[in-house]
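Revision sheet: structure tokens.
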Amino acid sequence: MGFKTGIVGLPNVGKSTLFNALTRTAAAQAANFPFCTIEPNVGEVAVPDMRVDKLAEIAKSAKTIPTRMTFVDIAGLVKGASKGEGLGNQFLANIREVDAIAHVLRCFEDGDVTHVEGRIDPVADAETIETELMLADLESIEKRMQGLVRKVRGGDKEALLQERLLKAAQAALENGQPARVVDVSDEDAKAWDGLQLLTTKPVLFVCNVAEDEAAQGNEHSEAVAKMAEEQGAASVVISAKIEEEISQLDPEEAEMFLSEMGLEEPGLDRLIKAGYKLLNLQTYFTAGPKESRAWTIAEGTLAPQAAGVIHGDFERAFIRAETIAYDDYIALGGEQGAKDAGKMRAEGKGYIVKDGDVLNFLHGA
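Predicted:
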């Protein structure tokens, strides 16, 4: 199960620098001119989670495999993108394919790095991109509504459902709000997701600050945090330059560097964790002599679907899941200790997997 977070923002805000650090590569060209990222660069990063290392130690695993998240570095956006300005059409097509948006905002002063609007105002920058996404959604809704007219007149149930949802989204957008503010019932959730509206995607604001402001942030990042709180969104403070430097160091050097900068952990770790939380994701584990591995699932996933993340056959032929809570596995010294203490449970198809569960799936042929 893949989860993609798109890194977006105006040109020259540090998107590609951040992406380079995230993926520990120089795959995205970081340069001081608009649209240096023409095609979206894709990279997978490990989700920081020390639990899988502890499980591997107890299970004496030959390998340790963390769960992963995909980041997509998308070309810079400018005002008018919804009408095709700059690389607008391509930007909108690329962002439609991601599950969430990490919106990088320039919160640093630097006369050597040009701002496309000629000023430093991250809140205004956020509004620029949000407005373009909203305009693109309104145009998409209008076209879809026109295409539904005949089916709606004929009483087609699916068309009537789509029309109702599109009108709800349209009302929010015309009121100056993104479509994600619309209250959607569980019954309508699948159809709502099928609309693929850009402003339904969850947003994480990433405040890119100067190196000496990475620990405390600044007035710009504070303004973004206030905006995020008002919108029910999230924000993190990060220095893309620091993260790029750290990505070139070995773990011991990186730890020393962070300590000197007054930071407890890399900003990238906080960014990845925030993205994980933004998408309502959680982790379960498998542990044994061959490997200990973390697996990503959405909150509320049932045991058979969790098994399907490993292999489709596991879901189709699911019998039960032998389940040990992470804390019990650690405290009791592994699987056998948990069994002996009666802490291993046999869970069936209706079991909702919990974060940290250590699972062994039994399935038919």
